[in-house]
Structure formats: structure tokens, C-alpha cells
Amino acid sequence: MSKFDFSNQSTLSSTKLDIIILHSQKGGPGKTTLSCNIAKELAKRGNKTVIIDLDIAQPTIQHIFHIDDIDIKHTINDVLLGETSVSEDVLNKTDDPNLFAIVAKENVEYGEGLLSMLEEIQKHSFFALHEMTKFLLRMGFRYVIYDCAPGYKLESVNAAAIADARIFVLRPSTFSYEGSKQMLNDIYKKLNIRSSNFFVFNQLPPNLKEESQNLLNSWKDGIVELYEPETIKFLDFLPISHEIMEMGLTGEYIFPESNPLYKRLTKIVDTVVETLDEMKKVKLKEES
Ligand SMILES: Nc1ncnc2c1ncn2[C@@H]1O[C@H](COP(=O)(O)OP(=O)(O)O)[C@@H](O)[C@H]1O
Ligand SMILES: [Mg+2]
After folding, report:
1. The domain spanning residue 173 has which CATH number?
2. Which domain holds residue 48?
3. Contact of 222 with 181, CB cutoff 8 Å
4. Residue 139 in domain
5. Which of 11, 48, 169, 283 could lock onto 29 through a cystine, CB 3.0 to 4.6 A?
6. b/e burial code for range 52-77 (CB count within 10 A of at least 16 → b)
């Protein structure tokens, strides 16, 4: 008997799983914030969705979704280390019946323990992520969101390689822009195999001077141009919200519907979903 009730999955779209990753060059631009809110919104729209914490060194998803230690049987670490085969034991329920979470292990010992674990994870991650995809397909999931570790970590790059949609998150800072351009050029352009690419600036200060807004617009164009002849879609310039910042104090990441960021997020979800559906139509046409 399955631990989880998937009996209503026939009412869901039978189209296969879409893999969405959120990645950035540096830490802190808002990958986790956007991952959780995108996952929550997709689930709210009736899609069986799973969010996976791939930021092994700084896990957060467990706390955001209030999952107790005692309820966790296996973590993504076990899967990436090849210590367990992927099974329902990795899935944790959240307060939305359509949304599940796969968490990363908390309190890993630091020092050599962490380093050797990260090395092992890098070794096994490509195979492990493929196994994960097969498992999630079997379970009837419609979307998986990977909240990646920043930078060039191999597990993040491997997730980027298998993703259907990649959302790259930047801060409005020249270091974020320059570093991101480098990374998009080094990795993303080279992995441009049939996936949809997006980028979003997050945490914009209010009341920008005209010259600052012009600079940001030139960065937006710079990224689109860098990507040519392939395409990367600009999603939004998301503002800093003091309410969201304050909620962050107690580990609350989900946007209240009354916050203006919620509306902006639903538009992002619309764009990503439409682009993925469009891509699927093209693929189907080519196959027939
Ligand atoms: N638009 C925003 N307005 C206010 N605070 C934000 C916004 N986006 C993210 N934050 C806050 O910034 C911090 C870092 O965000 P997080 O999503 O954890 O970044 P990352 O996962 O990329 O490291 C968190 O405390 C989060 O609440
Ligand atoms: Mg994070």
C-alpha cells in the first residue's frame, strides 16, 4: 500500500514531468524564495509538484515547509550519495496535498566530513538525478522544482543539464551581473539542449534613479544578447519587499497573496508554464 494517495492523479494532466531548476552564480539572490513560491503556485493550480533541496551545504526547504525531523526517512543526500535507491521514503508531505518536498540533511558535520561528502555527491549526482526523474515520472508528478546550490557545483550543473526549464536568478549588482554572464557563457550556453531559459533580477531597491534603471535595462539586454543565437527570456525585475524580508526573520518564505510579489510571481509561473507547453507541442510535432 502506498504511503501517499495518488488516486486522484488521473484527473491531472497526463503529460509528462517537467523539470524546472532555479540557479544563480552567487548565494542569496532569492533562488529558494522563488523555488518555494513557484512550487506552491504550481501545486495550487492542481499540479502534482515536488520541490527538491539541492543546496546540500545550506539546506532550507525542510524548515520552510515545516517538516519535522522525525517524519524524514531519506534525504536527497542519501540519494545523491548512492546510499539508497529512490523510493517513496524520500517524499515528505506539505500542507498542500499536491505539494511534496525532498529535503537535504541538516547538521552534517563540518570540516572533512562535509568535504568528502560533497565530493561523493558530485561523483554520483548525474546518475542519481536520472534515477530521480524516472521515479518521479512513475509517481505521476507533473512538475519538479530543483532549488540548486549556487555556482559551479556539479550537482547543480547536472540538474541544469537535465532541466526542461532553467531560471537564473540575479541581484541588481554589477558583481552579480558580471559573474552571471560568465556562468551563463561557461555553462548554460554549452548545455543548451532543448531547454527553455529564463532570468530574473530580484531584490531591486525602490525608487531607482533613472540612470540606475537604465543600467539595469542595459544588463537585461546584455544577457539576452550574450545568449544569441539561442534565446533566454527575461522574466521580471522583482522589487525588495520589506514584508518578505521581515517574514524571513522567522523562516517564512511563502508570499502572502496580498503582497504585490505574489501577483508578479503568478505571471512568472504563467510564462514558464506556457513556454514549456509550447516546447512540448513542437517536440510532439517533430516526433509525429
Ligand atoms: N524580493 C525580496 N524581497 C525581500 N526579501 C527577499 C526577496 N527575495 C529574497 N529575499 C530574502 O533574501 C534572503 C535570501 O533569499 P534566498 O531565497 O534564501 O536566496 P538564495 O536561495 O538564492 O540563497 C532571504 O532571507 C529572503 O527572505
Ligand atoms: Mg537557497
Report:
1. 3.40.50.300
2. 16-287
3. yes
4. yes
5. 169
6. bbbbbeebbbbebbebeeeebebbbb
Q: Considering the domain boundaries, does residue 196 fall inside one?
A: yes
Do the beta carbons of residue 55 and residue 286 sit within 8 Å?
A: no
Which residue's CA is minimally distant from atom 9 of ligand 1? Answer: 30
Q: Are 182 and 214 contacting, i.e. CB atoms less than 8 angstroms apart?
A: no
Pocket probe mutation, ligand 1, options 54, 244, 264, max atoms within 8 Å of Cβ: 244
Question: How are strands ordered across the β-sheet holding 49-54?
Answer: 92-93, 99-102, 49-54, 143-148, 18-23, 165-170, 196-204, 233-239
What's the whole-model pTM score? 0.93
Specify the residue for cell string 522525525. Answer: 70
Point out which residues pair with 53 in neighbouring strands.
147
Q: In angstroms, what CA-CA distances link 268 with 1, 26, 70, 200, 271?
A: 38, 21, 35, 9, 5
Domain-embedded: residue 6: no
Q: State which ligand 1 atom lies nearest to the alpha carbon of 29.
A: 22
Instruction: Collect all residues with Cβ–Cβ distance below 8 Å to 154 and sequence separation of at least 6.
Output: 121, 122, 125
- Per residue in 15-69, pLDDT (tens digit) is 589 999 999 999 999 999 999 999 999 999 999 999 999 998 899 999 999 999 9
DSSP-derived letter for residue 41 is H
Specify if 265 maps to a domain. yes
Q: Can you tell me which residue has the cell 517536440?
A: 283
Count of domains forming the chain: 1
